[in-house]
Amino acid sequence: MAYEEVLFPVCFTGKKKYFGVGHEDIVNFKLKNLFMKGIETVKQGKSQLLKFIREKIMREAMDINNTRSIHDIVEDTLREARNKEWDFNDFIVMGTWKPKKKNLCNNRFMERMREKNERIPDPGERFSYVVVKGPRLRNEKGRLIPYRVGDYMEYAGIAKEKNMEIDINYYLDTTVGMCARFINEDDRYQPPPSHKIMQLKYSDEKEKQTNKYSQDEATKWLKKYIKGLQ
Predict the structure, then answer these.
(1) Which pTM does this prediction carry?
(2) Do 113 and 146 share a domain, yes or no?
(3) Which UniProt keywords apply (predicted)?
């Protein structure tokens, strides 16, 4: 780590992935921006809820007065997000209509909008939408259709006008991969000594498979945790 990257506190979330409070020239624990390396950014157009969860977890983990583990912080943040009184605009997501691209969610959404005679954006045009609650759909034989996000996407303006109920759990589920990256170093997500991964001799391959295993296990736990939030 180069001198200009002296960090304290610091949190490592994987190989060459870390964030922390940087100190240059003088000690400063009240920085506006955290130093990050290898940490996935929240892409433009994503919901404010996703940005809130990412920012809150990282800042609370780096608080000099923090006494909680990052696992506890992730749990508390998701619970707070589940029960928080959000503004409708915090759920708005921006998409771009690309009819030739195999985007199953957008393609299904636009198919529904055509059936309703709603306006379809021009190719390359951006549109805003939210994901709302709704009953599970069935096919012509009465069998449940697997959940498809495109079946529950609605234009933001229409959803707001009709006061449709936002599916908060969908939005929390979109944070699972990110949150799993914060907690996958926890002992509970590591492969047991008897696992075949632990028998590997080559360190690079062992590290790669261990990282995938722990990320998958953390993801499973988070999905179950979010589902149980009320």
Answers:
(1) 0.83
(2) yes
(3) DNA-directed DNA polymerase, Nucleotidyltransferase, Transferase
